[in-house]
Design goal:
alpha+beta, 3 helices
């Protein structure tokens, strides 16, 4: 049976130090981390061969940024997963996009209040992949936009950091 809930509060996560080292402990999503502890999140920005960016609209049932159009696709790494493994899993679950870890081009790592994010750029042939199928609990719409149009949407949503990451990803891939 497939779990279709958004924001599964019982997901098991590894606990990390500020310098992205596993502590050997785990915790469940929804539980408070101690000061100086983090969990790992992974995000990918997907481009097709024509240079278009895949934007997604987050489900209105999401706890964070419901209904927002965004370029990043990803989520939290589960216990034992690397950020690459987690992103490969998340892309398959949320969008029916199947990639291999070697297709992920590392962009950067950011540390936030209680999580560490690894960001990747991904280039795929959108003409040869299976049709995008959305996991409705996570994503309610998706569309390919030109780089300029994607940046316009993201900037209008006041996601300036994301706009900078999209530009960096485009430079890395093209």
């Amino acid at each position: 049976m497939v779990d279709e809930r958004a924001d599964k509060l019982d997901e098991p996560w590894d606990v990390y130090t500020a310098d992205k080292q596993k502590t050997g402990r785990s915790h469940r999503r929804g539980e408070q981390l101690n000061v100086g502890e983090y969990h790992l999140v992974t995000n990918g920005i997907i481009f097709n061969l024509a240079g278009q960016v895949l934007l997604q609209q987050r489900s209105f049932h999401k706890m964070s940024r419901p209904g927002l159009w965004t370029a990043e696709i990803g989520g939290s790494a589960l216990v034992g997963e690397t950020s690459q493994q987690a992103l490969v899993r998340e892309l398959a679950e949320e969008m029916n996009i199947y990639v291999q870890a070697h297709q992920l081009r590392f962009l950067l790592t950011r540390r936030l209040s209680s999580w560490i994010e690894d960001w990747y750029a991904i280039k795929i042939d959108s003409e040869t992949i299976p049709p995008i199928r959305l996991q409705a609990a996570e994503v309610i719409a998706a569309d390919w936009l030109s780089l300029a149009d994607a940046l316009h949407v993201i900037q209008n949503n006041h996601q300036l950091t994301a706009a900078n990451l999209i530009s960096k990803a485009a430079t890395l891939l093209f």
